[in-house]
Design a protein that fits this description.
Blueprint (H helix, E strand, L loop, with lengths): L15 H11 L7 H14 L3 E5 L2 H11 L7 E5 L5 H8 L3 E5 L13 H4 L4 E7 L8 H11 L2 E5 L7 E2 L2 E2 L6 E5 L12 E5 L2 H11 L22 H12 L1 H19 L5 E3 L6 E2 L5 E5 L6 H10 L5 E2 L20 H9 E4 L7 H15 L5
Length: 372
């Protein structure tokens, strides 16, 4: 059966077409131009930071942030295992080693209580991921980091517009990174952003993303860098999206509220909560199947036949072949359990209440006794 309800899709609710056409007509479509400058300035302002530097992807943003912080061979970086593989990959790109930490069971974000026991003399920093749109416990994470004199990178790839105790995602660590992939709350199709209030980090990121070129001497490269720049054309899309970020977040939160209403009181199901002091931007609407007899993959297959796309939770990174050596899986049980029981329902801003009610009915039918 053809797909009727994708998990994600971009929604154009502002000036995207106008800005893209203007950019095309200007012929300034590469990695410099007014839309790039405006997008970076507006994004820094949105996050409450001094600097925002656009780049080619969220993975590139993580890589640049770690390089700017001086991460290199022999270093260890603490990361949540339950997240997208780009987090561990960016650490590995620097020649460093990702050290996996378990999730807390409510929001599935990094368990700050497990951080201190993972610190070693080689630990340089921690990457805190706002998983599926819910902020990690940044006060607790930062307290551990400060006690051990390590940095905090805030991975907000999935959390545009999320808020933690009155502060916007992107302003909570030494440096923050974002993704603008096509399924994100704010999208440019592909792209990323490094956000920081530290001018030294910003200067380093700016140089490294442009092949390492000396800013004051054109085509002079005193060090090896990367082609991690964002085109002005994509920044035009991003600026239009950012201008409507409150609308995008509110729409996603409304979709989540409709799911909560439709699935309220159903045994054996648990939705990602919103903890006190937090605003979940609801990148994905996540459901954990608590009944051990329920087959998550079976539920997903049945929904697919009804034209409803779903996605499983990310497999924990410590279970992937290149990162599994020497891992104590007993210390990562929450991540493994959530990964086998969790799925994402359609979550984009174009969904209407009738759509959500239909998806919820099909979902409940798929998890009903006798269907497992």
């Amino acid at each position: 059966m053809s797909l009727r309800y994708p998990v994600a899709r971009p929604v154009w609710a502002g000036n995207e077409e106008q800005y893209v056409l203007d950019c095309l007509r200007s012929t300034r479509i590469s990695s410099s131009g007014p839309y790039l400058e405006r997008f970076e300035a507006a994004f820094a302002g949105h996050c409450g930071a001094r600097h925002a530097l656009a780049c080619s992807s969220g993975t590139a943003a993580l890589h640049l942030a770690l390089l700017a912080l001086g991460v290199g061979p022999g270093d260890e970086i603490l990361v949540p295992s339950l997240t997208f593989v780009a987090v561990a990959n960016a650490v590995a790109y620097c020649g460093a080693r990702p050290v996996f930490v378990d999730s807390e069971p409510l929001t599935w974000t990094l368990d700050a209580a497990r951080l201190a026991e993972a610190v070693t003399p080689r630990t340089r920093g921690v990457i805190a991921v706002h998983l599926y749109g819910h902020p990690a416990d940044m006060d607790a994470i930062t307290a551990v980091a400060r006690r051990h004199r390590i940095f905090v990178v805030e991975d907000a790839a999935e959390a545009h517009g999320a808020v933690y105790r009155g502060r916007t995602a992107g302003s909570l660590g030494d440096v923050a990174t974002f993704s603008f992939y096509g399924n994100k709350v704010v999208t440019t199709g592909e792209g990323g952003m490094v956000v920081t209030s530290d001018s030294r980090i910003a200067d380093r990121v700016a140089r490294l993303r442009g092949q390492g070129m000396e800013p004051a001497r054109r085509y002079w490269f005193p060090e090896r860098g990367y082609n991690y720049r964002m085109p002005n054309l994509l920044a035009a899309v991003g600026l239009a999206q950012l201008e409507r970020i409150e609308w995008h977040v509110e729409r996603r939160r409304q979709v989540a509220a409709w799911y909560a209403e439709s699935l309220a009181g159903q045994p054996g199901l648990r939705l990602q909560p919103e903890l006190d002091g937090c605003l979940n931007s609801r990148w994905m609407n996540c459901v954990e199947l608590l009944d051990p007899a329920a087959s998550r993959d079976g539920v997903m297959a049945r929904l697919a036949t009804a034209g409803i796309e779903t996605r499983p939770f990310f497999p924990p990174m410590h279970t992937l072949p290149m990162y599994s050596d020497g891992v104590d899986r007993r210390a990562l049980r929450v991540a493994e359990q959530a990964a086998t029981r969790g799925l994402n329902l359609p979550s984009h801003a174009a969904l209407e209440q009738d759509d959500v009610r239909h998806i919820a009915r099909e979902f409940l039918a798929a998890v009903a006794p006798g269907q497992a």
